[in-house]
Amino acid sequence: MSDSRQRYNQTFKHEAVKYVQEQTKSLEHIAEELNISPGSLRNWLGEKPGV
Questions:
Q1: Which residue blocks in the chain are alpha helix, DSSP H?
Q2: Are 20 and 45 in contact (CB under 8 A)?
Q3: Which of these, 23, 24, 21, lies nearest to 45 by C-alpha position?
Q4: For a 10 Å CB count at each end of the chain, is N or C smaller?
């Protein structure tokens, strides 16, 4: 059985967080645009850079 979880590299995460910070759209709207879960995006926003 294959693992169905999507894995995102650090560059994608960094760019997604940067996009959230530059926009006035809701986090949920941006997550939908990027086809990721709002929870994942919220977690990335809370991570410390370089970790």
A1: 10-22, 27-34, 38-46
A2: yes
A3: 21
A4: N
What CA–CA distance (Å, rounded) separates 38 from 26? 10
**Rg, the chain, Cα only:** 11
pLDDT bracket for residue 50 (50, 70, 90): low
Look at the chain and count its residues.
Answer: 51
Predicted pLDDT of residue 18: 95
Query: Are 41 and 30 in contact, with CB atoms under 8 Å apart?
Result: yes
User: Measuring CA to CA, how many Å separate 37 from each of 6, 21, 26, 28, 43?
Assistant: 10, 17, 13, 8, 10
Predicted confidence (pLDDT) per residue in 8-28, tens digit: 999 999 999 999 999 999 999
